[in-house]
Design a protein that fits this description.
Number of strands: 16
Mean pLDDT: 96
Number of helices: 13
Strand order of the largest sheet: 4-12-11-10-7-5-6
CATH superfamily of the largest domain: Type I PLP-dependent aspartate aminotransferase-like (Major domain)
CATH architecture of the largest domain: 3-Layer(aba) Sandwich
Strand content: 15-25%
Largest sheet: 7 strands, mixed
Structural class: alpha/beta
Low-confidence stretches: 1-5
Shape: globular
Length: 429
């Protein structure tokens, strides 16, 4: 009885004091109290175990409470949990930066560490602007992004997120105004047609003298709609950016570290951006950490300018604890046959997702790597469907019309099948 009282007290205080992401305080969606997590399972305070289909918003690729990542964190915290990065360096950060240069597309060889994915996007945009200021071209102060995209919740990141249908359209009057091309319409495995890139090309051709950079999510547009598009589109974007002397920023925060079936989604098109943003699964979901990589041209262009340095410096930049866990997470991923593992997950998702297409409420299904998407014809009732999923012993958090899974890479076939069957049972009711 005492345990139940404590559980209800936590929820009561949560509703009284805590503001959750994208939630209302006047009409709150119930939160579920978690007491522990292990592997792919989240344990609630009432004793129920849930199979996590979200990887905690796509970052916990190795699942929870992994002994190797635990050991890395415990070892580092006994040495130092944090030290300022201004004028000081340390092995975890240096090792991580070297590792990132080694595994990302060739040409990205300078790394700026920051605290979160949104900040890495802010850093990338700031790099692009300062680069052109340093080149004596301050008029190149606009960005070209894609409709259907999402890049984060901070102001510069919001400004390049879909201004009409995105999560941040209510801020359109206070955000910097940039250019937007239509979202890519040709799917990942569909035949290419140059008409898909035509309007993008026209915007760039007309406005390249004002455009500092193109920013996009390569291959998979994530929180903006889970749109999977043709690698040829990305190839064409790279060519056009080079032709019109515009930098290319690849936001790989959601797609990096194997999620799409390549280590980085840019590899599907065989291209290298000028700047790349990483986050989420960088630490396997243990700590908040992000990175912005750039090539020599960008770094030299910035540092040879008037300021003589890049004008940015987060307090917790290069946090040793986060860097140590990130090193362990990357080593763990690369020590395994991760490609075959993602192929296994993709195969199971493909087998089970076909059945959803027969439901009258479903508009479309799609799978790429360890991402499975069921697009409904109408938006779901989040509070109600969340409760139903929990009753099925699964954790899935839809948004809008999208019911999707991005499970931890350690999920077994039986658990993945239970996850998909649980979703089907609810959606077919």
């Amino acid at each position: 009885m005492t345990i139940k009282n404590n559980q209800s007290e936590i929820i009561r205080k949560d509703q009284q004091f805590v503001w959750h992401p994208y939630s209302s305080l006047t009409d709150p969606i119930p939160a579920y109290e978690v007491v522990s997590a292990e592997g792919v399972y989240i344990q609630l305070a009432d004793g129920k175990h849930l199979i996590d289909g979200m990887s905690s918003w796509w970052c916990a690729i190795h699942g929870y409470n992994h002994p190797i990542l635990n050991a890395a964190a415990k070892d580092q915290i006994d040495r130092m949990s944090h030290v300022m990065f201004g004028g000081i360096t340390h092995a975890p950060a240096v090792s991580l930066c070297e590792k990132l240069v080694d595994i990302t597309p060739q040409g990205l060889n300078k790394v700026f560490l920051s605290d979160s994915g949104s900040v890495s996007v802010e850093v990338a945009i700031k790099m692009a602007f300062q680069y052109w200021i340093s080149q004596g071209q301050p008029e190149k102060n606009k960005l070209l992004s894609l409709k259907g995209g999402y890049h984060g919740d901070t102001f510069a990141a919001m400004s390049v997120t879909d201004p009409v249908n995105g999560m941040h359209h209510i801020f359109d009057q206070v955000l910097p105004q940039h250019y937007f091309a239509p979202k890519p319409e040709i799917g990942f495995n569909q035949a290419w047609n140059n008409t898909d890139i035509a309007e993008f090309k026209a915007i760039l051709a007309t406005n390249h003298q004002q455009i500092a950079a193109v920013i996009l999510e390569p291959i998979v547009q994530g929180a903006g709609g889970m749109n999977f598009y043709s690698p040829e589109y990305l190839k064409q974007v790279r060519k056009l950016c080079t032709q019109y002397n515009v930098l290319l920023i690849a936001d790989e925060i959601a797609t990096g570290f194997g999620r799409t079936g390549k280590l980085f989604a840019c590899e599907w098109a065989g291209i290298c951006p000028d700047i790349m943003c990483l986050g989420k699964s960088l630490t396997g979901g243990y700590m908040t950490l992000a990175a912005t990589l750039c090539n020599n041209e960008v770094s030299r262009g910035i540092c040879d300018g008037e300021a003589g340095c890049f004008m940015h410096g987060p307090t917790f930049m290069g946090n040793p604890l986060a860097c140590s866990v990130a090193n362990a997470s990357i080593d763990l991923l690369l020590s395994q046959d991760w490609y075959a593992n993602i192929d296994r997950i993709e195969s199971v998702l493909q087998q089970h997702i076909q059945a959803f297409s027969d439901l009258d409420t479903v508009a479309e299904t799609r799978v790429l790597g360890a991402i499975g998407v069921i697009e409904m014809k109408d938006p779901v009732n989040l509070a109600e469907i969340q409760r139903q999923f929990v009753e099925q012993g699964i954790w899935v958090r839809p948004f809008g019309k999208l019911v999707y899974v991005m499970p931890p890479f350690v999920i077994t076939n039986p658990d993945l099948e239970l996850l998909m069957k649980g979703i089907y049972k609810i959606l077919s009711m």
